[in-house]
Write a structure and sequence with these properties.
427 residues; cell membrane; 21 helices; membrane
Length: 427
Amino acid sequence: MILGIGIGFLALILLICGFEMLMVLGIPTLAVKAGLFANLPQIIVPQRMTSGINQSLLLAIPFFLFAAELMGQGQIAKRLTGLVRALVGHARGGIGYTTIGGAMGFGSVSGSAPATVAAMGKILYPELRRVKFTDRFSLGLIVSSAETALLIPPSITLIVYGWITGTSIAALFAAGLSVGAVLGLAFAVLTAIEARRTGVQGDPRASLSQIWQAFRDAGWALGMPVLILGGIYSGLFTPTEAAVMSVVYAILVEGFIYRSLDLRAFVAIAERSAIQNAVIFLLLALGTALSYFIAMAQIPNALINALAYFQVGPVVFLMVVNITFIIAGMFIDPNSIQLILVPALFPVAVSLGVDPVHFGMIVAVNIALGMVSPPFGLDLFVASSTLQKPVTEIIAGVWPFIIVNLIVLLLVTYVPGIATLVPDLLF
């Protein structure tokens, strides 16, 4: 138990001192190795790093990220958004619902919140301002709506959680559908209140021919979520195979059907995606080594014994988990949060009778909240770069959505059926 506190304290000090996340994960790993397991050969650290990420499941991450970049730079994101707008744009504040629906649609084919912010922000921010949504609310809505990409399959966050804990990816994806829908609905309620308060109107109602044209324009774009989700739940694809198919589909549609990307664009996107994936996999490798030493030091067992001694039940434990993740999410990127916290907390949750899928949804909602939490939420800076807005202005816009997010987090935490209903029906 003391060792676990020491590891956390060392990581916190490194973080406050401005060290990169590679060092925040790497230095505690080496310190534990040198302090407690000096008898083990030095080669154990690189061995655990390489063996930990040498799993076919993790191949889904680079493929989904590459597909997300292709779709964000091409036409798929725009056409999905156009379809949602044709269906709901006529409602009061309809462009706000379009933003939420477009983010959920793009999230269902990308699995990446930063990619969703970048793709949706360029398209929808000017439209939100055109209909007189305030600047702050428009920024907050774009940034917060992208959170659904971390919940709706094929969520990269859920893939990482499943890899760490051994939980079924298909079951996590099924749970993510319902939890993501609840979060999107909560944001829609907030949008409706804001639209009525500020007098925002909707677009002219689309005619049947316009709706049909929007469906035709988005036909190939709609094929992507059908391919991914249909393939996974029908058993035709594993999540990794679905990720590969998403890249093939994106290249065919964007390159040869929509002709929105040329060879030079493909090369540039591949380069950006490769750099992004290199960083992610270095973090995963270091996190694997740290998790190994956490297990060797029996930190989860110490936590379980401490909870038993103080007679802490699942209600209090889950509240502590939420507080821990909320604080960590203000400073640490989502993959690192999971790599640091989940290996220690997951065995404790299971010992208290918490369903692994339910706990995964609690983790995912917390991480989604962390992506928009000041001062260092990643999506805040992505939006700032994409929309050329000061980070302080974006932070001012996300506060109402953070409050809504906390309400959804409490519901998901203490009403397990929100997370487990769909997986139970399917599996």
